[in-house]
Write the structure tokens for this entry.
Amino acid sequence: MAQFRFKALEEVLNRKPVDVVREDNLVSDYYGILVFDEAKMKKYLSREAYKAVVDATKKGTIVDRKMADQVAQGMKAWAIENGATHYTHWFHPLTDGTAEKHDAFIIHGAEGGVIESFSGNLLSQQEPDASSFPSGGIRQTFEARGYTAWDPTSPAFISETTLTIPTIFISYTGEALDYKTPLLRALSAVDKAATEICQYFDKNVVSVKANLGWEQEYFLIDEALYMARPDLVLTGRTLMGHSSSKDQQLDDHYFSSIPTRVNRFMQDVENEAYKLGIPVKTRHNEVAPNQFELAPIYEEANLANDHNQLVMDIMQKIARRHKFRILFHEKPFAGINGSGKHNNWSLETDTGVNLYKPGKNPKSNLQFLTFVINTLKAVYDNQDILRASIYNAGNQHRLGANEAPPSIISVFLGTEVSKMLDLMEEAVVDRKMTPDEKTALKLNIGRIPEIILDSTDRNRTSPFAFTGNRFEFRAIGSSANCASAMIVLNAVVANQLKAFKREVDLLVESGTKKDEAIFQVLKKVIVETKPIRFNGNNYAREWIEEAAKRGLSNVNSVPEALSAYLRPESKKLFNDLGIFNETELAGRVEVEYEKFVMKVQIEARVLGDLAINHIVPTAVRYQSLLLENVKNLKDVFSENEFENLAKGRKELIIEISEHVSAIKEKRKEMIEARKKANVIEDIVEKAEVYEKTVKPYLDDIRNHIDKLELIVDNELWPLPKYRELLFVR
Ligand code: ADP
Ligand code: MG
């Protein structure tokens, strides 16, 4: 008998950690060497071209063609010196990844042969044949033109031997077909709206940027074991597998020492990230076995998002070098924690003030409270589109599974900020405040900084938590493009800040003093938004009831969650802010519905196939062994003895039969359900039918398979089990 049930297991145990070579001793020596950053621009560009790009980044001006030509020359020179032979426009289509098509720098030379060339035109704009990217019907394939256009706010970089230029991706008619275009629009909307509010407090503020610090969770699985699991290979998650007797009960994985092989992988990823100017900082073991986290220092949101996508790509490539496969799926294993991507978000003025950091004096604290309270209102009024922005087939398994924030959106403020809000609420503003009242309030507001900085007030169960100097949107799935959530969050905050300003200005016009007007409106908003504030345990069953009483929405289906995008008020919000016109929004939502249907469809097919050609034959083989055994018993023993001895075996034989029959029956029904769903034309209805009639079979069939896994001889079981996938490395 083989020592290991699988050749794969033997392979895993023989693996040696891969050596990692640091480029240099100090990270600061090689940080950003592959990025065409400001230092390199200074060296390779004329003064005017350099200024054109910096202005575009800092002030949002446009780089004209003449300047673009100069920039292209500089970029090309730098890229070729650093080993690049190709260039590509890199963009974020509405799939789960990024897209690139490489072109060599060469063109025909005037005197025969080829020369290296790269022009401003090629840098600025390209027209990839983009007919196969999802557009939700915006772009019919017969007019397949899509344009990519250079985003000078995110620096170009070299990936292997390709000069990579971050771009937006739009249709021939100008509609956004990607994540970056609307993200840039949303960031610009929040910039404008927030700047106007800042002007109440400080006339020097000219612009406001959003910062994003993402935390990326993931699983690592040994390549040999991964390959032996067709469900992981094809769907990114296990569609079957009985839980391991021990998994995360002892909390012995979280923050424990990182295994050497994994550590080498992390170092390798960090090396690459540093060369690309991505400030990755934190690494640790997560709660579930084989689950880990990586987080950088926060950056401007558009750049941070490019970096997140890039890091995910790097991680996938480097995992292979270390004979791992990385899982970004939100719920690769049933019964243990899934993976999220926390988005830490804040707004910062060009004067360097973090608007979510409590100030040192009453004035800046009023500004701080203005932003916090308006954010509350934005989240309260827009729970449903915020949820829609993070809800998908993968994340659905996670939300509400008592490990991730539930589907109910609420905001955690912590005791100190909550106290401030309560104090403001109680303050008398209907009549003029007495000087004493004013002083009391200001003093208290003024006391926030010390208290908050000392406070270790954390709530890990809240989907949207204030964490001292930022909000942390925690409900995002690990495989997501952060832009999806960042578009909506920045949009709703921009929308609310505009509404707030209108109200304050009205009061000021009618003679109220500015601070007083701000105070009055904030007070009103505090009262209105009370239901969204929750500092308790979001995992508790009681919260579900409590939230329902408060009128907060709770949605557990992907199609229903997505439908929030299609409400008239959502269309108006996005349209008014110039983020999505109706066509763009409809197209995008259609893509999401389509993705959901496809994912469930693929999972159903994979599960059906595996059930029939892996599981059923194995169960039947084991059953035959049992039958053989029973027959032999009958030959050897007397009638009476036999009945006694064979009882347990006979029961097993029947149990196996029952599961096998159920699997076959349910698989048939699942195929029928799919057939019915597939002929539905309307994508929304189709998604609903998939949710209601196809998806339930996934759990149902799985249950029978998992029961068989416990019964069938371990030697025969054809798939690596949870205890092997999660603990062997
Ligand atoms: P935790 O796990 O305690 O939430 P981490 O250190 O893992 O903390 O991640 C926190 C993330 O939040 C990091 O990316 C960090 O750079 C980021 N962050 C810190 N301050 C801000 C801020 N003002 N705005 C946005 N992100 C921030
Ligand atoms: Mg965090």
Notes: Residues 215, 342, 472 surround magnesium ion (ligand 2) (CB under 6 Å). The CA atoms of residues 393 and 596 lie 6 Å apart. The two ends are 22 Å apart (CA to CA). The longest strand covers residues 208-222.
